[in-house]
Amino acid sequence: MSDLSVRDELRAFVNERDWAQFHTPENLAKSISIEAAELLEHFQWDASASESEQELIEELADVLTYAYLLADRLGVDPEQIMLEKLEKTKSKYPTERSRGRSTKYDRL
Amino acid sequence: MSDLSVRDELRAFVNERDWAQFHTPENLAKSISIEAAELLEHFQWDASASESEQELIEELADVLTYAYLLADRLGVDPEQIMLEKLEKTKSKYPTERSRGRSTKYDRL
Amino acid sequence: MSDLSVRDELRAFVNERDWAQFHTPENLAKSISIEAAELLEHFQWDASASESEQELIEELADVLTYAYLLADRLGVDPEQIMLEKLEKTKSKYPTERSRGRSTKYDRL
Amino acid sequence: MSDLSVRDELRAFVNERDWAQFHTPENLAKSISIEAAELLEHFQWDASASESEQELIEELADVLTYAYLLADRLGVDPEQIMLEKLEKTKSKYPTERSRGRSTKYDRL
């Protein structure tokens, strides 16, 4: 494992291949959807996907990679935007009303 | 910003609401696809999405959050699986053959 | 081309393979998302997809096939639900306010 | 119900609003993915979606509508491409090997 951050590793990978030109926000958004569906394909006919856990993990890594690339393109830090969004979600789903329920906030 | 890791923040959020029961790998995979499409919706009719950058960032945060939850459920570290997958991708896309081209590796 | 309707052709295909057991509404909904992403993959890095039109058409056929299977499972006619939804959409997008604009109805 | 075909109804709807300019193959492909995810959202936390069947049917109609628009844009007939693809799928999944199994053809 490298001492560089994931962001720096990804930047180096992209720059060495001159791929930044393809990484418009729109293309990265399409890519996230495409990889998300490849992940979902492991559950297409079955709620469990046990026989292919390594492949599953790699599809998840693909989703994360495009999401990190988009974050970098937008100039934001992935973990920071998650924490900021989490604060918002907490107030939309107060514990006393949402405990043990998957109901969407606008129907709670 | 908290001193807790994002993983720990997410775990606390989920536990307080007793939501782990809903977070099967399959449900999280569906959730990633659903949030990815909400992100894509910002580019549905237009390659740029300038008027709604804050919303765009929040949709991206949602994708990342479900991806982190799935990683935790699978017992893997999000950044580590990205770095491991990156090593594989590097060998599939050698710089000399892939530079400046978006061609898929099996057609290079 | 057969004299049977597409619905009947699909039913025969599924029955001969004893596949109805896999075609729950949920599994068909996942399948539609998966095939939709394979279609989108033709536009991942490029707004045009000219070199692969036959493949593109087959991906579109896959989306349509799972959508027809879900309609049959729900007991509705695909073309009739399209026409009924079209009536609703017409009233949400009156011609005088929506002409030449891709703005969503709730922002018109 | 009209005497016009669904294709003609959709064409009239689009032309009255001057929306053909937005209906590039790429934008329609994105739209199919977006609507497919809205359909999937009904099954996000639960394999059944009984309480919202009317909404479910309308999401399915949206998927079908964008798929029909893309077919028209590509100059093909939706039901004919389904039947042609079905012939291919039949030979990839011979009944004797695929009966009662959801295994993908390349692993049969």
From TrEMBL, chains A, B, C, D:
Domain of life of the organism encoding this protein: Bacteria
Record-linked InterPro entries: dCTP_Pyrophosphatase (IPR052555), DCTPP (IPR025984)
Pfam families named in the record: MazG-like (PF12643)
Region (Disordered): 85-108
Chain segments annotated as transmembrane: none
A single GO molecular function term of this UniProt record: nucleoside triphosphate diphosphatase activity
GO biological process, any: nucleoside triphosphate catabolic process
Keywords linked to the UniProt accession: Hydrolase
PANTHER family, sorted: DCTP PYROPHOSPHATASE 1
Name this protein carries in UniProt: Nucleotide pyrophosphohydrolase
Annotated source species: Leucobacter denitrificans
